[in-house]
Amino acid sequence: MRRRITAALLAAAVASLSACTAAPVTVSSDALTGLGSESVHVGIAYDSAGRGDKSFNDAAGAGLDRAKKELLVGATEVTTKSEDDEGRVAALRELVRAGSNPVIAVGFLYAGAIGTVAKENPGTLFAIIDDDSVQAKNVVSLLFSEEQGSYLVGVAAGLATESGRVGFVGGVDVPLIHKFEAGYTAGVHSVDPDIRVTARYLSKPPDFSGFGSPDKGRAAAAALLDGGADVVYSAAGGSGQGALEAVAAVPGAWAIGVDSDQYAGAAGAVKERILTSMLKRVDNGVFQEIQAFIKGDRAGGAKRYDLKVDGVGYATSNAAIEPYADGLERARYRILSGAVQVPSS
Questions:
Q1: Do 118 and 104 meet the contact criterion of CB atoms below 8 Å apart?
Q2: What Gene3D superfamilies does the entry give (predicted)?
Q3: Is the separation of the CB atoms in 176 and 213 below 8 Å?
């Protein structure tokens, strides 16, 4: 009797399984069931430049877009409405109210706001890009080795310059942007220590307008060009668009973009004068953090994205970079091997 009951139960189970597999299941783009029946809804808070800056924010947005497509997560995106902590706190609280978990803040200026809102919401994981000052169990810092990528585009600048003078435009005079300048200068001088590198910063704290003022970027780049520079690298967020335009107006000069492949998003005459861009793979950082969350990694701490993990690099979209490819690759291998330790200040 027991054998007959067992056989009957087995047959019923097989029939049930067949019925389940016969009908395909469609998963909504607003939910992902990577952990049982849990839905994952990501929140991302951009700085005041927002999406469309063709630089830092767009790189973060690209990582979110990839996660929506490949991981089927839902998402809410906000841009801070003011340049103070109050506005950033409001943006993060809006994401929490929308049911977002994890919540990702784009830029070190969110540090104070993250500290406040993470304490209010211990059950939510917060990630912040470019800052490791907030020590909490539910806050993870996504950090990048900008100096390594900047070293590589510095090599490109050193190889491409004909005047022996190159320039650097920094958005705001802060330690983060000093890393870009230090790596760039070291890369230039690895080609020829006699090449002159001149730097200009657009603002100093507490004034952070240097990240969102194309007019300031244009004026700073124009001054560098007037001083004899024929290659200008800008690490200035949205202000960099003005720097690119200033370079494009000078025959024979080259611009170097930052964060995203700015050649790919530029138009007309500006596009052709972008020799390369320092790629800061914020897209990879955002995507991988969402992926880790889905897999159950809910811990705070810090994660670093360097050259070894494709966290930084350089763009090859413009064929004009090809004559310098061998030099760039040799520099990349020297960093990877440890033969070159790139300075960060």
A1: no
A2: 3.40.50.2300
A3: no
